[in-house]
Amino acid sequence: MRGHYRIEIATAISRYVALAGAALVAVLVFLPLFGSRALMQELIFVFYMLALAQLWNLLAGYAGLVSVGQQAFVGLGGYLLFAFTVLVGFDALVAIVLAGLIAGAFAFPTALVVFRLRGAYFAIGTWVVAEVFRLVLAQVKELGGGTGTSLPVAVTNGVAGMEWIKTFFDVRTAVARDMLIYWLALALAIGTILGVYYVLRSRRGLALAAIRDSELAAESVGVDSYRAKLWVYAVTAAMTGMIGALIYLQKARISPDAAFSVLDWTAYVIFVVVIGGIGTIEGPIVGIVIFWLLQSYLADFGSWYLILLGALAIGIMLFAPRGIWGFFADRYKIVLFPLQRRLIDAGGEKKSGT
Amino acid sequence: MLALLDTVIQGVLLGGLYALFALGLSLIFGIMRLVNLAHGDLIVLAAFVIFALAKALGLNSFGALVLAAPVLFGFGYALQHFVLNRTLGRDILPPLLVTFGLSIIIQNGLLEAFSADTKRLSAGALETASVSLLPGLAVGVMPLLTLASAVGVIFALNYLFYRTPIGRAFRATSDDPEIAQLMGIDNRRIFALAMAVAMVVTAIAALYLGTRANFDPSIGPARLLYAFEAVIIGGLGSFWGTLAGGIIIGVAQTVGAHINAEWQILAGHLAFLAVLVLRPRGLFPRAVD
Questions:
Q1: Would the CB atoms of A128 and B262 count as touching at under 8 Å?
Q2: Which of B92, B107, B269 sits opposite A120 (nearest CB)?
């Protein structure tokens, strides 16, 4: 009877969602042609925060590496962009890729130190490392030292592809720049979501899920948890570095305090993941929408806004620790990005198992 | 040579302050394995409480501390009882994220209440008093008092831990929370008491933080990192180890600053990372995490 069974991951809902997602992506790709510039700039922010949130979720929600020091790699990526474009003279696109690779390489010596700390102590250890990066880069006078520096106009306006966008769409330089960065940010956000989904569906993802559920049990069935975690840490560092480089291509101005800000690049990111639902791919997507709404309407309230964010995060953690998405997914059994493998027999009877 | 000796002595005294920052963290971690990311902000909060009491009642800072201590004891008990006890369990995420949220709330709450202006606690004539150790080598009375207070707090904590019934309950809960509960100890009450005691230690730390230099609502996270480094260097669960860790960070910072003023903080962090690579369990480990 062996031929009568097959293993499926996709569900009926997930197939429709994939179609709807593709349609949404198509709309987003063409948005610069009809949307306003302000909307485009807001969405750039949404895209890179979403990408950062997905990466932090992979680290904390799946690999159990609760880092509060991801700003180390955002800032490093930003500074590498500046170093490669201003000091070496590379094109910004090349610099973004290089920034990612080097940030990923930096993950290894960093891991050598912080992986000695477990659990919550790992969290503060990563924060110390981020502070070390900040303090060291503040010493680099060529990149503005402690006060920071700006990208020369020649760099921001000379990115490969901008001339083409200018002539093809007949827009000003500044608009062409926004369009290019918008598409890059969109590509990074979608690439990150699909990348994380792909990783989680792979053998490595299975190993990560096992480690998340019980590290001891995972090791006893042959999962090398140190290697699995190191691999995730390095990949997220590389992606985070690329996003950092893109963020600072858009901002065009960098300073150690901003580039290594724990609030901007870690606290907000954690908020997005926790509100949406940690340990799911859908969670950060729900979280970013809520965060964007809150930011749009309440950011003017300054510190009260931050107090509200902090209180919301505490409330969610205490009363619905699986976040908004987790709450609904548990109740209605919806999964948009299915990871569970199901055994299906020829008669259509379904048996579930992972 | 005298300059170097002076630098090291200043570093040791600064280490007393960092040990005071760290003792509260060490106490909490030792008993309930809770890593409090808001610890630095709680120190700053305590400094503002002392500041507000001193100003409102016209007291000096030491008098205000005596009044602030019971207030903060109660605050610590309530914080643990109503919020943090709900987060304790096998999963490390809830306590981390809740204390991270708390950190943001405290920082911004203080910003609303007291503005971003820097404040300072006055210690009167003690601020400028100094004693001469050698010809040409004098140390301030306040830094000496800071180190002496750290040593005093450690003696008091060790007495509390090893000579009193509540200390026995602390140690029992630390060793094995489930068995302690079987023996009739109410863990949740023990945890709340531990946090309350930690807040009193924090209040003492805050007094010396505020009299040593200016403070404002944003400086908490950096104090958390120093405190954390001292705890890890010293080894988990040992108060004297925490003092040693604080002194190592303090000396590294003053020596770093002696070479180049911009290297002060960096030197402290690098010393911490070096210890972590060479002795991952710290210098005097006692507890196992």
A1: no
A2: B92
